[in-house]
Amino acid sequence: MNHPTRNAEIKIGAWLTVIFLLTAFSSAWGAEPSAPDSSKAVTEFMRGVSTTLWILALGVLTVMIKAGRIATALLLGILKPEWIHRAGHLVATRPMTILILGFVDWIVVCILLAILAGLTQHLKFLILFDLLLIAWIIMTTLVGVSGVYLLLGRKLNEGMEPEWRQITKGGLLLESALALPILGWMAYCAVMCAGLGCGVMLLFGSGRPAMTVALEKKENHGGAPKENTSSSSALE
Predict the structure, then answer these.
(1) Is residue 230 part of a domain?
(2) d(CA 117, CA 172)
(3) What distances in angstroms separate CA 52 from CA 41, 60, 79, 166, one per listed residue?
(4) Distance (Å, whole) CA 73 – CA 80
(5) Which of 7, 29, 70, 91 is 20 to 30 A from 203, comparing alpha carbons?
(6) Closest Cα to residue 167, out of 57, 79, 36, 63?
(7) How many CB atoms sit inside 10 A of residue 202's CB?
(8) Would you say 197 and 97 are in contact if contact means Cβ atoms under 8 Å apart?
(9) Which of 186, 180, 109 is nearest to 141 (CA)?
(10) Is residue 68 part of a domain?
(11) Mind listing the pLDDT tens digit for each residue in 191-224?
């Protein structure tokens, strides 16, 4: 005759065994199979290759942007040299004014672009206006940056080389300095602010070309001296 307590212990043990087996089976079923070491190595290698390609692409894009700015400055020096002369004159004589003006202009531009971006969702024809505004901002900033290139090139060579070489050397020096971490990024923001401020001042303000100023000084020194009318009248 079976004892009741003994039967209860057997049943409890059986149920615990079943629960343990079910738990182990579910854990094994839900666990992901571990990849072999070779598969992990291949995955890490492909991830490293992808990261390297992204870094190279970013570097190539950065170099192309820098080369494009210098090429634009050279093109402006050929087509519109008076613009670069006036920009260089403003950068040399009123640096803080154009820096503050450019900073305010960038704030206004960002607010305006944010408003236009919201309106463009409802009025699709404003996309063309957005693109024209962005193109105008880029070209205006490049005119001012070209003046910075020219000013740096003249400081390096004291104006003894052709103008296109001065622009090229000044551009290479500035773009190389802007590639430095932290300090270069801060200088980049300052140059962009100065460029936009200088371009806006050229369009809506006044700036005399540096070449015109130099020619006027030369003519004043080389011209005939003015007669001293006061002394001659006193002698008479």
Answers:
(1) no
(2) 35
(3) 17, 12, 40, 36
(4) 10
(5) 70
(6) 79
(7) 21
(8) yes
(9) 109
(10) no
(11) 999 999 999 998 886 544 444 444 344 444 544 4
- d(CA 34, CA 8) in angstroms, rounded, equals 42
Classify residue 52: in a domain, yes or no: no
Residue 214 domain flag: yes
Q: Measured between alpha carbons, how far is 225 from 90 in angstroms, rounded to an integer?
A: 30
Residue showing tokens 């100065």: 194
Instruction: Count up the domains in the chain and report the number.
Output: 1
Cα(217)–Cα(159) distance, integer angstroms: 16
Tokens matching residue 6:
């003994």
Range of the domain at 210: 82-220
The pLDDT tens digits of the residues spanning 133-183 come to 889 999 999 999 999 998 888 888 776 778 888 898 889 988 888 888 888
Helices (H), the chain: 4-30, 37-79, 81-93, 95-120, 126-157, 163-178, 183-204, 210-222, 229-235
Rounded alpha-carbon distances, angstroms, from residue 24 to 13, 32, 147 = 17, 14, 75
The span from the CA of 225 to the CA of 227, in Å, is 6
First to last CA, the chain: 159
